[in-house]
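Many introductory courses stop at the sequence. We go one step further.
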Amino acid sequence: MTGTYNEILVLFSLLVAILASYTALDMAGRVATTQGVAARWWLAGGAFAMGLGVWSMHFVGMLAFDLPIPLGYDITLTFCSMLAAISSSAFALWLVSQAQLPFQRLALGAVLMGIGIALMHYIGMAALQMQPGIDYHPGWFTLSIVIAVVASGAALWIAFHLRRGGRRKHLLRVLAAVVMGFAIVGMHYTGMAAAEFPADSWCGAARDGGVPAQWLAILVVVATVAIMGIALIVSVLDRQMHARTHHLAHSLARANEELVQAALHDPLTRLPNRILLQDRIEQAIEKAKRKHEQFAVMFLDLDGFKGINDAYGHQAGDALLVDVAARVRGLLRSQDTLSRLGGDEFVLIIATTDPEGAAMVAQRIIDTVAATILWAQGVDLHVTASIGIALYPSDGDSERELMAHADAAMYHTKDNGRNGYTFFAPSMNISAHQQVKLLNELRRAVERNELVLHYQPKFAAPDYRMVGAEALLRWQHPEHGLLAPGAFIPAAERSGLILAIGDWVLDEACRQLRAWRDDGHEIANVAINLSPLQFSSPNLVETVAGALERHAVPASSLTLEITETTAMRDADASLGILDELTAMGVKISIDDFGTGYSSLLYLKRLPADELKIDRAFVRELETNSDDVAIVSSIIALGKTLNLRVVAEGVETPGQRHHLRRLGCDLYQGYLMGEPVAADMLFATQDGRQLA
């Protein structure tokens, strides 16, 4: 009995084989790229979809075959053939999901899978239950088994090497699916060619209630396409989800890196900050302990940075810091560390074998920092560096000790002229401890009323009568006696304690002014100095108004002295503050005039009442013609702007004579009156009553 083939179903069987092959390759990729429970689910689902696809191709091919007798299929055997296809698919997916696929394993897998595919085919043929049975040509039968084994081996090898994703591999999967589809179809139709049906054969399944061929065709086609389509859609969606998850994970990792970078690095210079520096020093200590090495911690502070920041603004200061950081970093090796603590302070960790090596590095840094920096606006910026050096382990065996000792050495450099480096010595530690002790005692001094004001008189030409006084702060220390401001004011300014001290000075001066007037002593005006921090305080105007009101003192009796540098730091903001003060009636004096960088445009707008010539210009007035010219210009400027001019530091008759000749208005100095306690100001001096 000779059978015929339906060309359309044959073509459809080829398409199903190609689709089943692509599904198999895609499932192999999903199983190989997942782990745990997800991998087992993909293995089960992939085996079902792939097995059903291969089985479907087989039955579509069977349905394409037609005999001149009714045909049907036994349900049990048909189901068994499907189980054989699914089992073979599960084995194949498991095999290609392994980390390696050596040739021996590939060969064994090809034989087992090929036998499974052959079992599926011939069990499916047996489902016809032909009577008498089907005869198989030995040659074609053997060839079909060989094709099944070879096709299985090729499929396993292709699936193993194309299991990872990628645009190029997706294209290769399509080509490989076509090749595998032709191989599967070739095996099937070779097996069909091996079947020989006797002339009087009849189909037992068709007579015994088997599934009719037309219904089986519809069931197989619909179910197969649906299942493989769903499997591919789920795979594509899962791949997209994994890609999105990978993208989100990558973005999260990158954001985490940026957060770590921000947490451990200075935002301006991108150098390690204090937190990372502490960790680097501790790591250096551990390494040095293991290898019996030493290293240096250098504390670097820029000299003159504050002046640049004040004169040209923070933009120039930031540009300078970035440039200095880049220059210094260019001098270092990969094992060295440069960090920024904040402001103009940097710390370096230098791997060195001896102090001479550390000294060479420090000198190179000093030379590099000292080079002029051309700012973007055409301004030359120039700073120098003061460096303190502490060596491990001789100067400390902990991060805290090394940092403290390097800091102390740096301040020793500043105290000795700046623009250099100093190695730590134990004597410096005593000075550092003294500073801490001094600050603690200063805090208690405010509470214990140990602060006092002395008053230095001001005299007016031409008769040199006293017209006012300047309040000068002193500290009556219980151990060290009377301390001048230079001994404690810098520490107060660094700690912020200057605000409380400044408020006390303002209140005490107003109280004393009231007391003098109540005692019948008439004094026109008392001047007090405002620190830069106090001048920038938002409560300044309120504090001044409160002191004046509290002690019933006329505002015109109070003069507030601010330095030229302080007034010009933020000229517009200064104008607003000074306008409020002068609106109350308070007098304003520009102190240390000539040492700053006043713009005449802003100076003209300042509501000041007097200029004070800095003592540096008065000191050599008798011998230095340049100082004479400067003082003459300041006095002329004051006259032009209708400002009184005060000369401080007048200590000789010659200085007073020159100032009188140049037209100075007021005089202040040891020649005419030293700072004295409040109850001594109106005592008789030089044979006449100063009142």
